[in-house]
Amino acid sequence: MTFDDEHHRIAIAEAEGLDEFSDTMAGIDHVAFTMDSIFDLAEFYDNAKSKGLRPFWCINHGPTTSLYYKDPNGCRIEFQCDQVNYPGGAAAFFSSPEFARNPLGIEFEPDALFERVRNGEEPDTVLARPDTL
């Protein structure tokens, strides 16, 4: 759901097998923060890594490139940057064959991805989900 140009402010999903209080519990799955660019996401990653913080899940969803961390209580926090390379933007991607085949996205290794950013590779190329090329 959204109320403005953001592709989603709240996402609601049904899931089976939810427990009382665990990683599969009912409630808020995660909170997300959007960075302005892949450069900002890379800088955030490097800063967090220098403090010993590593994401537990790195995934290119299609509309976003995302790093997921857990806070000390186990709450999940997503840091993401929007993709700019899918024709028609996020709304079109959610109706695409790529999304139908793989709605979660494609995992990536953050050190390798952000090395490409540091080496000057074009953001559109770095951010492209491999199955949309």
If you had to describe this structure to a student in words, what would you say it looks like?
With 133 residues, the chain is an alpha+beta fold. It has a single domain (30-132), classed as Signal recognition particle alu RNA binding heterodimer, srp9/1 (2-Layer Sandwich), CATH 3.30.720. The chain is 28% helix and 20% strand. The protein has helices at 38-50, 89-93, 97-101, 110-118, 123-127; strands at 30-35, 57-60, 64-70, 76-82, 106-107. It has a five-stranded mixed sheet. Strand 3 and strand 4 (76-82) form a beta hairpin. The two termini are 27 Å apart. Residues 1-82 form the VOC domain. InterPro entries: Glyas_Bleomycin-R_OHBP_Dase (IPR029068), Glyas_Fos-R_dOase_dom (IPR004360), VOC_core (IPR037523). This is VOC domain-containing protein.
Chart the SSEs and their pairings.
Elements: E1 30-35, H1 38-50, E2 57-60, E3 64-70, E4 76-82, H2 89-93, H3 97-101, E5 106-107, H4 110-118, H5 123-127
Parallel strand pairs: 1-4
Antiparallel strand pairs: 2-3, 2-5, 3-4
Question: Nutshell version of this structure?
Answer:
It holds the Pfam family Glyoxalase. Helix content is 28%, strand content 20%.
Integer tally of domains: 1
Strand count, sense and barrel status of the largest sheet are: 5 strands, mixed
User: Spans of 5+ residues with little confidence (pLDDT < 50)?
Assistant: none
Average predicted confidence as pLDDT:
84
**Tally of helical runs:** 5
Number of strands: 5
**Order of strands across the main sheet:** 1-4-3-2-5
Might you state the CATH topology name? Signal recognition particle alu RNA binding heterodimer, srp9/1
From the N-terminal CA to the C-terminal CA, the straight-line distance is 27 Å
Secondary-structure element series: EHEEEHHEHH
Which structural class matches the secondary elements?
alpha+beta
